[in-house]
């Protein structure tokens, strides 16, 4: 029991959480005036922390205030909530912008801690659980969904998994304060981090989407996004890896990719490729294999553009999976102009 009771005392607050406590202590009027001096990204981080904070014990408030060089021992506890965050933001932001920020934050979790944990990426959750005592991990696994447990357990290793399952089977009901301590730790150390990573995850998802959509559609979207979010679009483009980028990888790596492509996807992908791209593929092959591939492409006759795109996407997926597994190395895809 002492192990669980120490969680709250030992918990380290993040920078945004400490700032959130300060703003809550200042109140809406003074907090709003101070928040006007911050950048949008900082406002979002602090607002997220305020919205998820809940009740903060007086001793934690005092500890934070000492760090800021002030004494607030008589201030008592404070409570952070979505409504508190809304009141602070309304002091200096338009109503529509306030609702936009809060909608973004509220949309990142369901309000149910164990459901939110169950929806997390299993690698992220496993990374946190590896640092915890097995009894704590067993408690967490007993409360998240079976699907989530099935994904996380193998990532913790066979030997540890056996011990965890044994503890789950023999688990007794824990005191409510122990459960609250675990919940507080998870809410601040896991879900808060997941919220901070949300933008990066969304960008990663868009990279995958843009890799798959038709080139004309991507060009059309790019023109609109270039006006609204030029920096984010640039970041996404730098992370994209499309079919034509395959000509940038080493010949040996390209040969490995071509060997892994299934069915007639290789001739189909090259049949609809630009001439210089197609020639690069063909020139990287042995003469006999090249001649056979050319014959296959000729025998195909006219092909549908959507079939070509699907075949090219499959080749890109193969390359990305091989790179992730360390089997090949992909080039940096930076759009920076080179100056001699």
Automatic annotation (TrEMBL):
What membrane topology does the UniProt entry give? Peripheral membrane protein
The Flagellar motor switch protein FliG middle domain covers 123-191
According to its UniProt record, where is this protein located?
Bacterial flagellum basal body; Cell membrane
Task: Tell whether Zinc is among the UniProt keywords.
Answer: no
* An annotated GO BP: bacterial-type flagellum-dependent cell motility
Gene Ontology cellular-component terms for this entry are: bacterial-type flagellum basal body; plasma membrane
Residues forming the Flagellar motor switch protein FliG N-terminal domain are: 13-111
Principal localization?
other
Residues annotated as domain Flagellar motor switch protein FliG C-terminal: 224-330
| Alphabetically ordered keywords of this record | Bacterial flagellum, Cell membrane, Cell projection, Chemotaxis, Cilium, Flagellar rotation, Flagellum, Membrane
InterPro entries, per database record: Flg_Motor_Flig, Flg_Motor_Flig_C, FliG_a-hlx, FliG_M, FliG_N
Taxonomic superkingdom = Bacteria
A molecular function (GO) held by this record is: cytoskeletal motor activity
Q: Which Gene3D superfamilies match?
A: 1.10.220.30
Q: What is its biological role?
A: FliG is one of three proteins (FliG, FliN, FliM) that forms the rotor-mounted switch complex (C ring), located at the base of the basal body. This complex interacts with the CheY and CheZ chemotaxis proteins, in addition to contacting components of the motor that determine the direction of flagellar rotation.
Concerning its family, UniProt says:
Belongs to the FliG family.
Per its record, how is this protein called by name? Flagellar motor switch protein FliG
**What gene name is given for the protein in this entry?**
fliG
